[in-house]
Amino acid sequence: MSRSRTTVLAVALLAILLFAVGSAGSASVLDVYSIWPESFCTPMFQEFTAKTGIKINFVRHSSGEVLARIIAEKDNPRVGMVFGGPADTFAAAIDEGVLEPYIPAGVRAIPEKYRHPKGYYTGIALNPIVFLSNRGFLADNKLKAPSSWNDLLDPVYRQQLQMADARTSGTGVNRIMSTIFAMGSEDAAYKYMKELDKQVQVYTKSGGGGTVPVGTRQAGAGVFFLVDCILTQQKGYDVAITFPKEGSAVALEACALIKGGKNHDLAKKFMDWLVTAEAQSLYAKHGIGFMPTNPDAKVSELIDVRGANFVDVDLQWAADNRQRLIDRWVTEVLGQ
Amino acid sequence: MAKGIELKGVSKVFRHPERGDVHAVKQLDLTVQPGELVTLLGPSGCGKTTALRMIAGFENPTTGRILIGGQDVTDTMPNRRNIGFVFQNYALFPHMSVFDNVSYGLSVKGIPKVERRERVAHVLDLVGLQGMERRFPNQLSGGEQQRVALARVIVTEPSVLLLDEPLSNLDAKRRVQMRSEIRRLQRSLNMTSVYVTHDQEEALSISDRVVVMNLGEMEQEGTPQEIYAHPESQFVAGFIGKVNALPAEVVRVDRDEVTASFGATSFTVCGPSMSIAVGQRVSLLIRPESVDLSSEPDGPAPKGRIVQVTYLGEKAEYDIECDGTQLKAVSFDPARHGMFAQGQEVYLRMQGGSMILTDQ
Amino acid sequence: MSSTSAIMRREKRRLELANLARDPVLLLTVVLVWVAMFIFILWPLLKLMQAAFVDKGHLSAKALVSILSRPNNRLALRNSLLLGGLVALIGTALGYLFAFTYARTNIGSFWRGVIDIACLLPLISPPFTLALAILFALGPRGLITYGILGLKNVNLYGLQGALLAEVLTYFPIAYLTLRGILANIDLSMEDAAFSLGASRLRVFLTVTLPLTIPGIANALLVLFASSLADFASPLILSGARFPVLPTQAYLQITGLYDMKGGAALCFLLLVPSLLIFAIQRQWVGKRSYVTVSGKSAASSGGRLTPPWARWLLLALCLATSIFVFFLYGSILFGSLVRAWGANHTFTLENYRYVFTFGRKAIRDTLVIALTAMPIGGIYGILVGYLVSRKSFPGRSAMEFVSMINYSLPGIIVGIGYLLAFNNPPIALAGTAWILIAAYVFRYSATGIRATVATLHQMDPAIEEASTSLGAGTAVTFRRITVPLIAPAFFAGLEIMFIRAMTAISATIFLISVNWTLITVRILEGATELELGHAAGFSMLVIAIVFITTGILRWIMRLAGMSDYSAVAQIR
User: B242-359: which CATH topology?
Assistant: First the structure.
């Protein structure tokens, strides 16, 4: 008797599990690859869901992984759109033919330089390259927070810097571009980066991976995107955010439709919403350290852009040269 | 219900990783009559267990056919042969109670619960295990486990009962008790049985017929009496009981009789099956109990010296050296007849009629 | 080769085929298992090879040559081998120290418990946890290096960091292997040597140590293979200057979008892994002097160590254990404060995050783990039963194939699955099934091995008895074999669950919008800014694993089964 009851129980349990396994994916849910970290994209998705009732399913990957995935899934796309991530990733995706153009309603509010002319992607946020340094470290070494790329070559910083690996992180690529603008030529920039390499403790996999080590004083300083630094500051680490006076590249954070992806109608609604000042004002509300592309949106008080010298990246040039710059960085700077 | 078994030219070759091909059974022909108990007897490695396992279907013969009840079962799965197999280690299901063990075969065959309970109770009664239904195998003694193994098999009323050294794990006393019990059950249920053992006493006591095997081949078959009294080879003689082999030379060949000399003494023996010539070196086989010892020569008898005396209660065994040959003799009831002492010179009185002549 | 043996081989094949022909259940099972193995083990490997070696329809070594032409990749190969060798040596030595202390000194059961827990934690914890904790303890501003020792400019990144993390992660495997062997050495052998006048040192060197050599060899190989496959610790701790193959392959694909190059790097990793697998099967498998016959408590093994040595050994073990506890304690701490390393105000915020934003990952992981558990458990005993109890053509090939996914580094399996199941005919990518299949065919190895070992000790006559009583293959398997190998089945379930909760390397490429995993969230937390979240997820995984294995053991005890000690089978 009891044996048969156990069997029934086991079968029922298995059936529930199998049901759970099979129950994924329904029509009114938008599937998204997010390049923005969990803590940024989740509040945005929730606000959108609250407003429209459209649910968003997402998985978060670094920009490189998202690009690799959508290329691999070209014949059988699994999501409708890519959310967030630097525009050069999108430029690379256009070359691979995996994006579908869409010009969101109300896109005219966004300056032209922040969107693709054919609508392959639309910029929703700005993110400059900045320096992050630990205030305790600065005080101990009687230093001011770095304000020039050359400040980082001070012997005090030897083995004290953390920054992203250009192979896995858009932050790393934008850092390379920043130095090219700052140094005036590519060769000078690579010469500089080779010098800088001696100061580096570790190149992290993700763009923001070095910010917490700077916060905890494992590292003295680093080069990151503004958004990651704001987050570190908000978490309570005693850090300083400064801008290189020679200039820093501003990355455009964008979103795009995936060619042949699912539920494009939902994705379009989402993109229409994302370009509004209302949506972009939410960055400030949720402590997301991006600057909006919509000039009417509210900017967070946390962002202090004094001393900044922003250089907008020529996206076509960036897309054309991205891979070459990374390869050159790997061979010349890492010496591999 | 009882069915006969036939083995026709059955061979089995195993591949051994180091020794290459091992011919476990060679061209075995064997017929077991319905209701008969045949013992396969032989030393370990003689192929007897392999032969039994082929009858059961646990091994497939390399060549030859196996018939049960006249039906070819060579390619039939063991579970479709309606056999009962009693294993050397009993192979009781350790996770089942005595009752579940015994009723297993019935439940597999889809016998209804009520009937199952009745039949199990009846069989447990038959083997003397009433009241043990709820115990588990590890709570039973060796003898009890043996009974469960037996009960588990006979409850299914198999057409053939196969027993693989079923008593080898029991102590001497239990062994004697169980073997007569098995014989009693086999007879009362009229089950065709093949019984594998290496114990000649067991074979002699339990069988209708004994098949002696050696190196994968049948050496001799016959009733226990035939096998014991008329071994056809030195191997059979030596394996069934003890035997003395006297080196001898043929001095005369008659039509039915051969005379051979062992030292200075000549013995006249019944004519052998083989062809024989005068002057040929042969062996005269004689069992120790047929060798009488006496301190006085009484007619022509070889003389020997007692090397060792072993006292065994109901009998005494003597190791004797005689003309450079080691011999054994047994005398029964030594308390009544008196014993010889070590070192004593004795005369060995042997009758040609108790001897068997074989090749040397 | 003589012609007779060729005839015999043909004859054996004929018999095996005849055996299959007369047993349709067996035939069907064998065919199904082979089909499953082909789809989920061989096919992905073939796709990987195809990606690495087929260029526009032609066989070509171009990808491999281009990978090897980069000094960085050659360095990665060298580094992987170096790291693996060091981890194997140090980890096995540490494992031996622990095992010897456990089995050959009369330390009390309390201390044994302490050692056991210190060894259990790294085995059941998710990846990255130890690496992160080490970073916080020993990094440039680590609590120990800077806070206590006052060292400045400590460089943890590179060989030293990865080595420390991997030694601490993998030495428990060596410990469990060697403890089993030491505990099973008949103490009377040591006593015999003593009685013949040998000193303690001599007894150890001439009796105890030689008897454990097969175990040592095995531990060395397993640790080498584990380190070779490890992806989590180097990702955090080795940095760009000490590349290793699994992380290189990962970066090649995720960073450079170069699937071909990634596949070629996987091939570089495949060669040494298969070599170790072959050595282990051919050499170690046949050289065990000790037959494992259930558990034997070696409580009276204290003769071999003089009292001073006992305290020294115990002190060494405790020092290591305390360090391990400290590391796990610091993860717990990190999960309970606002900003690990800077702002140590107590907060439950991280757990609130884990249980709200992490809910999907938790649900997905549990559903996948709980589904993979019974499927993998059944597959494990089925394969174990087939290869050790049934004779059919290709039996030993089946055994070999069943171990392939387990023996290969997870990253290879993951990339193979990605290549094989992304498109029709078997488009599993994006579903839970691809993750479940990855776990089932990779981590059922424990169940298979435990089943084989159990059946090895079980008299085949028990199954034959069932057959002779009229039960067919299926009934015998269900009513006799399964109950008897239940402990092995449960061991398989346990490992399957632990692995499904903690694995990352095989599954990092297989997650999707619909199905994600806690370990991927930990990776994210670890590489992004959210260390508190990573710590919270890690603690959650450890708690779930503890509770679930506790429940499994409780069920086993209720059912009166003996404890198979599943964790001993982890690799």
Answer: OB fold (Dihydrolipoamide Acetyltransferase, E2P) (2.40.50)
**How far is it, in rounded angstroms, from Cα C266 to Cα C418?**
13
Q: How far apart are the first and last CA of chain B?
A: 47
Q: Which sign, positive or negative, has the C-alpha torsion B322, B324, B326, B327?
A: negative
Every domain of chain C and the residues it spans: 16-60+353-569, 74-324
In a domain, A186, yes or no: yes
> Cα dist. B144→A201, B128, B207, B279, C121 in Å?
76, 9, 23, 59, 48
Fold topology of C16-60+353-569: MetI-like fold (1.10.3720)
Across the interface, which of C15, C465, C476 has its CB nearest the CB of B85?
C465
Q: Which amino acid is at A302?
A: L
Q: Which pLDDT score is estimated for C290? A: 40
Whole-angstrom Cα distance, residue B202 to residue C139? 79
Which of C75, C514, C528 is the closest to A25 by Cβ? C514
Phi, psi of A89, rounded to the nearest 5 degrees = -65, -40
Same domain (yes/no): A99, A137: no
- A-chain CB neighbours of C235 within 8 Å are 205
In this complex, does chain A touch chain B, defined as having at least 3 beta-carbon pairs under 8 Å apart?
A: no
Question: What residue numbers bound the domain in which A218 lies?
Answer: 127-250+307-333
Which of B77, B92, B106, B120 to probe by mutation at the C interface, max C CB count within 10 Å? Answer: B77
pLDDT, tens only, C509-566: 888 878 889 998 888 888 766 788 889 999 999 999 989 988 888 887 777 665 444 4
> Model confidence over A175-230: pLDDT tens digits?
998 899 888 899 999 999 999 998 998 888 778 888 888 988 888 999 999 988 99
Task: Looking at the complex, report in whole angstroms how far the Cα of residue C469 sits from the nearest Cα belonging to chain B.
Answer: 5
Asked whether residue A107 is domain-assigned, the answer is yes
CATH architecture label of C74-324: Orthogonal Bundle (1.10)
Is A10 a domain residue?
A: no
CATH 2.40.50.100 in chain B is located at 242-359
Q: Assess whether the previous peptide bond of C393 is cis (omega < 30° from 0).
A: no
Q: What is the pLDDT of residues B160-198, one digit of tens each?
A: 999 999 988 888 888 888 888 899 989 988 999 999 999
Fold of B5-235: Rossmann fold (3.40.50)
Portions of chain B given CATH number 3.40.50.300: 5-235
Test C423 with A18 for CB contact under 8 angstroms.
no
- Reply yes or no on whether the pLDDT at A18 is more than 80: no
